[in-house]
Design goal:
alpha+beta; 11 helices; transmembrane helix; transmembrane; membrane
Length: about 290
């Protein structure tokens, strides 16, 4: 399966660059999302798709250095400053404005968006015409995935693993549910895009389709409800992946509102590590620190 991932990345990177990208991915925790991650599970090759990547803000350096080293050029979008140096200044200002992140914080149906995305940077290759998008996030990446607009795009690839959070609905039934956040903002354009791609969106509460979305149940990455494909070398060390510590619950609203995710950010003692955790189990971890 690693060979197919290399094939998916071949429009963006040469063979040697692809190996280097895996090294960067391993060292930074970068994940691949978007159409490429979905294509990995369906084994499709789609023309003219971009490569969407996500990396924690603190670990951006090696990723941006890599893009520069293989002749990708920063391509500012509307409202962005013309060079990365100027963007870094703006980035620093945004970080300072956000203040301290509490040990544990939770969202509820009324405040679903956790605002983890700090900045989106596009890089363009003048020879291939391909675009690589680097999304900088504050905090852990799985929490960002859980805030995506639809279940059909909750798929991602990290070093050694490919993950799908709702594979039965997405790949076996070609169905999807959309988040409360999309409805509340009145922005259904993205949903319509995936409808055009053949996805049937639920017109009822996700609790009415428990066989597809398993609502109100504590989930973790790698459980029986998700897919976790191991792409590690056969001679690699056998150890539990800390990624499986991430937990959440899907909660239904109603036909119009869509779902929301019950999850909070738990910051671990190790540098730059944090995890998503469902509110129903938080007392087992930190009984006195729920915020």
């Amino acid at each position: 399966m690693l060979s197919f991932l290399k094939k998916l990345l071949s429009p963006f990177f040469s063979s040697s660059q692809c190996k280097d990208s895996f090294r960067v991915q391993k060292n930074t925790g970068l994940i691949i999302g978007g159409s490429i991650s979905g294509c990995y599970f369906t084994e499709e090759i789609l023309p003219d798709v971009n490569l969407d990547t996500f990396v924690q803000l603190e670990r951006r350096g090696p990723v941006l250095d890599f893009m520069k080293s293989i002749n990708y050029t920063f391509m500012p979008t509307a409202g962005q400053l013309p060079t990365l140096d100027f963007m870094y200044d703006l980035l620093a200002a945004r970080i300072l404005s956000r203040g301290h992140i509490p040990l544990i914080s939770f969202v509820c149906a009324g405040e679903y968006s956790g605002h983890t995305i700090v900045m989106v940077l596009n890089f363009w290759h003048d020879q291939s015409g391909r675009i690589v998008q680097v999304v900088l996030t504050k905090g852990m990446l799985v929490y960002t995935i859980l805030q995506f607009h639809s279940t059909c795009v909750m798929n991602f690839i990290l070093y050694g693993y490919a993950i799908s959070l709702y594979p039965k609905a997405t790949f076996m039934s070609k169905r999807s549910a959309h988040s409360y956040n999309i409805s509340s903002n009145g922005d259904m354009g993205t949903v319509n895009k995936y409808k055009a791609h053949g996805f049937i969106y639920e017109e009822k509460d996700v609790t009415q389709s428990p066989e597809l979305y398993f609502p109100r149940i504590n989930h973790r990455i790698g459980d029986d409800f998700s897919w976790m494909i191991d792409m590690r070398p056969e001679d690699g060390p056998e150890r539990e992946n800390p990624l499986t510590m991430n937990m959440w619950r899907m909660m239904g609203c109603n036909t119009i509102d869509g779902f929301w995710i019950d999850a909070g950010i738990m910051h671990a003692g190790r540098l730059d590590e944090s995890y998503s955790i469902a509110s129903t189990v938080i007392y087992l971890v930190y009984p006195d620190t729920l915020m």
